[in-house]
Amino acid sequence: MTHLRKTRPGPLLPALLLALTVTAPQPSAWASHGGTDQLSAARAGPYAVSAWTRPNPAWNGWLSVGVAVMRPGTQVPVLDAVVRLTANSIDQGKEPVAVEATRRQGANRLLYNADMKLPSEGRWQVTVSVAGPEGSGSAAFQIQVKRPSITYWLAVGLGGGTVGLILVWLVWRRRRDALEAILAAFVLWLFASGCAREARPERIALEYSRAVYASDLAQAYRLISSQDRRVKNEEIYLRGAPTGFALEVSRQLASFLKVTHVEQTINGDQARVKLQLKLPDANAPEIATLVREWDERLLNALLQSEREEITRKLDQLARAQKIPMIEGEENFSLVREGSGWRVFLNWAGGARVRFRTAMREAIPLQVTVSPEEVLLTPGERMQVVVRVKNVSSRDFVTRVGHRIEPKAQAGALALLQCPLFVPVTLKPGETEEFRSEYMMLRDSPDQAKEFEVTYEFFPAERTRGQASRL
Amino acid sequence: MDPVLQAFLVSWGWRADVILVLALLAAAYIIGWWHLHRAGHSALARGSRLVCYLTGLATVYLALLSPIDSFASLLFSMHMVQHEMLTMVAVPLLLLANPLPIVLWALPRSLRRGVGGLLIREAAVRRGLWALTLMPVTWGLYMVTFWGWHLPTAYEAALRNGLLHDLQHLSIFVAALLFWWPIINPAPRLHGHIPYVYRVIYVFPAMILPMLLVMSIAFFAKEVFYSYYTAVPRLWGLTALEDQTAGWVLMGVWEGLTYVGLLLVLIAKTLDHEERVTRQRESLGLVPEKNSP
User: Which of B2, B8, B11 to substitute to test the interface with A, most A CBs within 10 Å?
Assistant: First the structure.
């Protein structure tokens, strides 16, 4: 055998190789393949939904879920839905776990994927909620969470033992180059995983700003502190959030948001972040015309080709730097939770606002208001929907008075928009919906903690004098 | 662009274990090849072998981490493409690269001697490999493994369980390595020179029997064998049954063409080999004159 010149490979290549493969993000959704079928083309409102989970049972609570949203019957995939997964503990009263499943989160971009961590063992019910242009619906399945078995720990022990034995052997054989390589890889891994886990407060604040700007409330909710989330549950928070293409186009626009300056103060487990932002002016004619004046129903009814056209034009505008921008400043308080930061909104310190309806006399209207109660923090906006039905057999004209109590603090709750100030004519059996928008002013007094908003209905011919007294 | 096609094109997976193994195998071969090449062993470290090896590894990468893998759980036909890439493309390419002696040269000298010692004539490992690469053994192992995994119970179990699915691919890959071993006969030549006519006899039934099975399933099956595929989105207008038929036909055509090509090569090699032997015998004066009484 010919003698070959001995070359001593440096530690860099194997170290980089090892570091690359160990540190790169690899949630299980990226190791795409099948999984246990939990839902097989089950009906979820106007959709058919199939769902697969890996592993089964979910050892230690880690669960990867893939969801296919399809048209019933044909099983043609629906690719523009918003899919949320909510896991509720059946055996123990644990807090629900909710995540958004998206097509970007896994290897298979036809499926909506998400990884979940279910915090306790036992049975969990996972509800798959789908919202899209054709409506919304949900389907559910149950899953078992188990603690790792003895086999799991044996495998971990064997793996660890093998690595240990290799290290001992290398030390014994004085393989300094190999040891250097392993050490370098370990340091790189520590560094990279540290970077990956703890996103800085300003990054969370920026993500939150982006989500709020995009009206992507599901994403925003995930970035809010658990202390706040205990005060207001997700269902209430998500009311009125746009869905379907309206949400997609908002997200696209939000991706153009830029930070021009950051100030950050970290004090133990609390942080304050000031962001100066450049935001796309969504109401500028260049954008508003393109996105059908932000009419959600119109946007969600667009054909695929029309949607692609809008997306393409927005991209073109962005590339040509022709998107009209406005500048603004936002302050955030954040708290450290586990290994990351979350936005603290102090909802517990917010004001409770109740909505109710009243009728001065027997008038032939059925009126409901939704939501009946909300919690508003200074600076926060909310929408209330008033649904009015004429239950008589003739046209009815009505006007609405609007009263905020206690009157002394009424100024703290600003009414931004109300279409009910003008007389409304309802045909027999007709139902109309009106949306009012409120905002709790930032400088509202501390004692403004409880509000009651009353919508009072009058027959139109008698309203002028009565309404003016409100 | 069709949104399903768009989703397909960006559905790339990421698996550290697969990437690590492929990167290590590639690094080992390249280092060994480079050492041999610099030492003047160009006949062993040929450029074509390096190309074969790297193409083989790239095929494994594409089969396991490209959109083909991601969509294999949605389309039976895509899953068959994946299996054919592993068994009919990657494996022969890797074996044509004659990997064992070249990878040995990537190891430190002490380790190389240790591993080389396992393959000397009297070693138990070599004897084990010899038994494992006997033609009837490799033929039987491959057929049982490959077709066994396509039985509905085993196939669907693999789709539902990631570990089992990895085991499916690994066992099919190893069985294919063994199946192709006597055909290509790389180093160490455990059975010496295997006559090409034996190889023809070995390949012919491998072509005929499965082809008959595959085509009869493809054309006479009236129901979906793998119920898993009935709950998935329907892509490009294919029903589950059409997808199943497409999968079997694709497999039949792919394997059929490979085996026919292989048989032609083997027959050519047989003729060539016989001609060379005759010439050698003639040159040694061992062949009687044609006109002698």
Answer: B11
* Domain harbouring A210, CATH code: 3.10.450.50
Both A394 and A431 in a single domain?
yes
Q: Which one of B73, B79, B102, B166 makes the best mutation probe of the A interface by having the most chain A beta carbons within 10 Å?
A: B73
Exposed / middle / buried, residue B107 (Cβ in 10 Å: 0-12, 13-18, 19+): middle
- Distance from the Cα of A107 to chain B's closest Cα (Å) equals 5
Give average pLDDT by consecutive 10-residue segment, chain A, 470 residues.
Answer: 44 52 46 74 85 80 88 86 84 74 84 86 84 80 77 76 78 68 66 52 82 80 82 76 81 78 80 86 86 85 84 81 85 79 82 85 84 79 85 86 84 78 84 84 72 86 43
Question: Residue B215: phi, psi to the nearest 5?
Answer: -70, -35
Distance from chain centroid for Cα B156: 23
Contact A5 B14 (CB under 8 A): no
- Together in a domain, A390 and A450: yes
Contact between A21 and B7 using a beta-carbon 8 Å cutoff? no
Q: Are residues A403 and A357 in the same domain?
A: yes
Provide the residue range defining the domain that includes A42. Answer: 30-146
The reply to whether B2 touches chain A by the CB within 8 Å rule is: no
Q: Which helix (H) or strand (E) holds A69?
A: strand A62-70
Q: Does B43 touch chain A (CB under 8 A)?
A: no
Q: Is B1 on the interface with A (CB under 8 A)?
A: no
Verify that A171 and A220 share a domain, yes or no: no
Residue A25 in domain: no
Q: Say if residue A234 is in the same domain as residue A310.
A: yes
pLDDT in tens, A67-91: 999 988 788 899 888 888 888 877 6
The length of chain B in residues reads 293
**Cβ–Cβ contact B179 with A under 8 A:** no
Query: How far apart are the CA of A36 and the nearest CA of chain B, in angstroms?
Result: 5
Do A214 and A321 share a domain, yes or no? yes
CATH number of the domain at A443, please: 2.60.370.10
Listed as own residue / partner, the contacts of A149-158 with beta carbons closer than 8 Å and 24 or more positions apart are A149/A59, A152/A59
- The CA distance from B283 to A48, in Å, is 77
- Determine the residue among B232, B234, B235, B242 to mutate to test chain A binding: the one whose Cβ has the most chain A Cβ atoms within 10 Å: B232
Nearest C-alpha in B relative to A8: B108
Q: Is B111 on the interface with A (CB under 8 A)?
A: no
Cα separation, A186 vs A169, whole angstroms:
18
Q: Which residues contact A87 (CB under 8 A, 6 or more apart)?
A: A63, A96, A97, A98, A116, A118, A124, A125, A126, A127, A143
A52 and B41 in contact (C-beta within 8 Å)? no
Counted domains in chain A: 4
- Under a CB-based contact definition with an 8 Å cutoff, are residues A138 and A129 in contact? yes
* Residue B225 dihedral angles phi and psi, to the nearest 5°: -75, -35
Please report, for residues A93, A350, A385, the alpha-carbon distance to residue A378 in angstroms, rounded to integers and kept in the order given. Answer: 32, 7, 21
Q: Are residues A93 and A227 in the same domain?
A: no
Q: What is the DSSP string of A331-362?
A: EEEEEEETTEEEE---GGGSEEEEEEEEESS-
Q: Do A70 and B234 touch (CB under 8 A)?
A: yes
Cα–Cα separations (whole angstroms), residue A336 to A96, A167, A190, A346:
21, 37, 21, 14
- Please indicate whether, in this complex, the C-beta atoms of B160 and A304 are within 8 angstroms of each other: no
